[in-house]
Design a protein that fits this description.
40% of the residues lie in helices and 16% in strands. The chain is of the alpha+beta class.
């Protein structure tokens, strides 16, 4: 059978649940635990439907009062007759599993098509029912979802197949997030009923759940599934720590709840302000308490829960925030606005913390009822995210003009994963970069110069922003402006920064290996690694090196003509940016991507690297030497007006500044890098002497290696 089988009537007493006895009540969290025999086979409250599906119908009607339930009845009848005689390992009829999975999704607010596919999700794999029969009886969209879940069930989750697991899952998911939603609900029910498995098998399933499915639930925003999966995996994989946390929670619940008094104060403040709101105490789940203790070292009495304030309109959220910050002492460092800048997984809420007169600190979440539904159920709460605006659910109408479904995740996370799995050079690279991406638990939002936004992991650099905005066009990136100022590509971005990426006009440009040191996102790392694998000479090419900055007057840089002549006639010639040769330097060339020849100084480290790779050199010499481009590095002691003085002597020599970078001071020393266009290469030695004469400058040298921007 595709689903792990154990006792569906309950979970061992030491396993965390959403309604575990002793936990504080009033929690505004979707209840996913009503799955015993009575729930599955008790009396129905809807005439015309099989008794076993009554609770599914009730949960579905709570979200969709006008839903047509006859299709669910037909789907149940097909599933029950197909699975008849099949048993779970606990001895329960197998139909209890698809019913339980469907009830989970119904309580989350899934639409009718998803519930229909959920009831049938094991029929094609485990019975004689075919996809064609499913399509003929329930339509192409249900057929599509059942096919996707069936493919997911065939993925090998063994340790040896780990690098390929995620790739196969993504291909099987296709372009419909509802396939993954059904898979997540399927895994939740199996995790709830895992106790009769051998301990080693429990650990294997829990490990895959922790490494693969929980991060997916986070990315899809399905917090109600994610938090329970986390607790169930935590109890299996780290039983001693789980018992420790459970004991701490039990101690915290044994006394008076300090959050109850704070909640009452908040209710009073909001009543006096005429702001209609519901104030609830939201207990933290086990893993959340574990994280808070790891962060703070010692738990405060109020750390076992948070206050949740639910209001009707977006504007009311900010009104509540204003009242709380006026009547209590706010902890400013805890404030986050995920309404103005929603998280990548659709999550919206205001986060703050306030201190009351006795010194207790309470964390507060403020959101509308709609936001709360999406926060709990993520993409499941979208209903059919592919249906057109008129609400119809025809699969063909949901397709975009280019034949692909629009990705409802923000900002197109699933679409990007599907692209990465195609472009990743090998499974290990794909797996390692994707694991790193999934491990990111904090996100920043940066603003593009055109007014759009980019969601990036904390610590992301301009390299990540370039690939997030421009895709493979980012290979041509030569610098950036951050908040209006020129910045290197290695610059780490902060929440709220405004970023303008600067691209070279030369389409043959490519990234440098050093870019990988600054890339935090899977998209950037996979794209850079792929380009470097296809262009082994790229690290030595002028335009493949990461440039430090761009002209201050625009978003592109036009390189000067070279004056170098190579032995291959009618061939484009470029001066390598890694060593910026100028007459009378001894030079040599190498053929590079795009049919051009890159000219390097003989002593350049890239020349030795190219020869070691077996690249044949191309003879080169200087022809008519007019103007030339060169990169100079000035080492100096930091002082006011240093930049102005250096640029003044450069201008006095008749040189034009193509690009300039000032690195942050280190031990009172600074480094200025200037890419200059000189009218005559013969003037270079004199210019370097003049720059050395500037007060505070102790050395000026030619650039000897690619910049590390």
């Amino acid at each position: 059978m595709s689903a792990e089988a154990t006792n569906p009537e309950g979970v061992p007493a030491d396993t965390p649940t959403a309604d575990q006895p002793g936990r504080r009540r009033g929690r505004a969290r979707i209840d996913l635990r009503r799955l015993g025999r009575a729930a599955l086979f008790g009396p129905t409250s809807r005439s015309g439907l099989p008794a076993a599906i009554g609770h599914v119908a009730e949960a579905h009607r709570a979200h969709y009062p006008d839903a047509d339930l006859t299709v669910l009845g037909r789907a149940y009848e097909l599933a029950e007759s197909s699975h008849r005689g099949q048993m779970r390992k606990s001895g329960e009829p197998y139909i209890t599993h698809p019913l339980a999975v469907t009830l989970i999704l119904a309580e989350l607010g899934a639409e009718t098509t998803t519930l229909t596919a959920s009831l049938l999700h094991d029929t094609v794999e485990d019975t004689d029912v075919t996809l064609d029969q499913v399509g003929a009886a329930f339509g192409d969209e249900v057929r599509y979802l059942v096919d996707g879940v069936t493919k997911l069930e065939k993925v090998d989750y063994g340790a040896a197949a780990e690098p390929e697991t995620f790739r196969k899952m993504l291909v099987a998911t296709g372009d419909d997030v509802r396939v993954m939603s059904i898979k997540l609900a399927d895994r939740l029910h199996n995790m709830r009923t895992l106790s009769v498995m051998r301990p080693e098998k429990q650990a294997r399933i829990a490990k895959v759940t922790q490494d693969v499915l929980i991060p997916l639930a986070e990315r899809l925003g399905v917090q109600a599934l994610k938090t329970e999966l986390e607790d169930l995996a935590f109890a299996i994989l780290r039983p001693e720590e789980y018992e420790d946390i459970r004991a701490l929670i039990a101690v915290g619940e044994s006394g008076a709840d300090p959050l109850a008094a704070i909640a009452e104060e908040v209710r009073k403040v909001l009543r006096e302000s005429d702001i209609p709101a519901e104030v609830l105490i939201r207990p933290r789940h086990f893993v959340s308490v574990h994280r808070v203790r790891a962060k703070r070292g010692e738990l405060r009495p109020t750390d076992f829960g948070r206050l949740l304030v639910l209001v009707g309109e977006d504007a009311d959220c900010y009104a509540v925030l204003g009242e709380l910050h006026t009547c209590f002492t706010p902890v400013i460092s805890e404030f986050k606005d995920f309404i103005a800048a929603p998280k990548f997984n659709l999550y919206q809420s205001l986060h703050t913390a306030v201190a009351v007169p006795d010194g207790a600190v309470a964390e507060v979440l403020i959101r509308t009822h709609r936001m709360h539904k999406v926060a709990e159920a993520g993409v499941v709460a979208l209903g059919n995210p592919y249906a057109p605006a008129d609400g119809t659910q025809a699969a063909d109408a949901a397709d975009t003009a280019n034949g692909e479904r629009a990705d409802p995740t923000r900002p197109g996370w699933l679409s990007r994963l599907l692209e990465w799995q195609v472009s990743a050079p090998d499974p290990d690279t794909f797996w390692s970069t994707l694991r790193a991406d999934l491990a990111q638990d904090r996100e920043i939002t940066v603003f593009r110069a055109d007014g759009g936004t980019l969601g990036l992991p904390a610590g992301a650099s301009c390299v990540d922003a370039a690939y997030a905005q421009h895709g493979e066009e980012a290979h041509r990136c030569i610098g950036a402006r951050v908040n209006g100022r020129l910045a290197t590509l290695s610059t780490a971005l902060s929440d709220g920064d405004i970023v303008q990426l600067l691209l070279a006009e030369d389409t043959s440009s490519g990234p440098s290996p050093e870019w990988l040191d600054h890339a935090r996102t899977a998209a950037a790392r996979i794209a850079i690694s792929g380009w470097l694998a296809e262009h082994p000479e790229g690290a030595a090419v002028a335009d493949a090196a990461p440039r430090s900055a761009a002209s201050a007057t625009g978003g592109t840089v036009r390189r000067a003509t070279t004056g170098a002549v190579v032995e291959l006639p009618h061939t484009a010639v470029r001066l390598a940016g890694c060593c910026t040769p100028v007459p009378p330097d001894a030079i040599t060339g190498f053929a590079v991507h795009g049919g051009a020849v890159a000219v390097h100084r003989e002593g350049c480290a890239s020349v030795a690297r190219m020869r070691a790779l077996g690249r044949a050199p191309v003879g080169a010499d200087w022809g008519d030497t007019g103007d030339c481009t060169v990169t100079l590095v000035a080492e100096a002691f930091g002082r006011p007006q240093l930049f102005a003085d250096l640029t003044e002597v450069i201008a006095s020599a008749g040189a034009a500044v193509v690009a300039a970078t000032v690195e942050p001071p280190s031990e009172q020393r600074v480094r200025h890098t200037y890419t200059l266009q000189l009218p005559d290469a013969a003037e270079l030695p004199a210019l370097m002497r003049t720059m050395r004469d500037v007060a505070g400058v102790y050395d000026v040298s030619r650039a000897q290696h690619p910049a590390t921007a």
